[in-house]
């Protein structure tokens, strides 16, 4: 990673994941504008795109860069290698570095592209990059207890259920419990690294 930009690109058989760039605007807009009405409780459904013009998108790209360069959050757009359609997003957010090297994983696929295995494909390559390129040791996902789709995805990539954190997120006017699913480098046959410490 350079000091002025973050451009980590990940490839799978069908997908390319990379930070949003100005030239992604039309694809990004089409992905969000093509969303269907919410298909289940945890599907965000259609999005109001009023005000999301090119200038707004350029500022979004810049915010994502600043978050990555400050080691706060690494946000990837998920795109089809064949069509360049924007399929969704993945983010890896630092919880604590130092002796923990600990991060949180978030993922979302536009509902018109769900049930095609894109989420599993994207999450797997993002987890590996989180360990290999971003040097995390522990990456976890906090999932609502009844979010069956997200639980199934986490299990499918080899994440293990660790615990229930009670009252973990405040959402919809109340504190809610969440399952914690976790992954480590060893789950993917990767070498466990010692934390990088400053001299």
Largest sheet: 8 strands, mixed
- The CATH class turns out to be Alpha Beta
Spans of at least 5 consecutive residues whose pLDDT stays below 50 are none
- Morphology: globular
Q: What share of the residues lie within helices?
A: 10-25%
Distance between the termini: 20 Å
Question: Taking strands numbered 1, 2, ... along the chain, how are they ordered across the largest sheet?
Answer: 1-2-3-4-5-6-8-7
Architecture blueprint of SSEs:
Layout: E1 10-11, E2 15-18, H1 25-33, H2 54-69, E3 73-80, E4 86-96, E5 102-109, H3 118-132, E6 138-144, H4 148-156, E7 160-171, E8 174-183
Parallel strand pairs: 5-6
Antiparallel strand pairs: 1-2, 2-3, 3-4, 4-5, 6-8, 7-8
Describe this structure in words.
Keywords: Transferase. One of its GO terms (molecular function) is acyltransferase activity, transferring groups other than amino-acyl groups. Pfam families: Acetyltransf_3 (PF13302). This is GNAT family N-acetyltransferase. It comes from Chamaesiphon polymorphus CCALA 037. The structure is a single chain. By secondary structure, the chain is an alpha+beta fold. The chain has one domain: Gcn5-related N-acetyltransferase (GNAT) (Aminopeptidase), CATH 3.40.630.30. 25% of the residues lie in helices and 31% in strands. It contains 4 helices and 8 strands. It has helices at 25-33, 54-69, 118-132, 148-156; strands spanning 10-11, 15-18, 73-80, 86-96, 102-109, 138-144, 160-171, 174-183. Strands 1-2-3-4-5-6-8-7 form an 8-stranded mixed sheet, sandwiched between helices. Strand 7 (160-171) and strand 8 form a beta hairpin. The longest helix has 16 residues, at 54-69. The radius of gyration is 17 Å and the shape is globular. It starts with 9 loop residues before the first strand and ends in a 16-residue tail after the last strand. The mean pLDDT is 94.
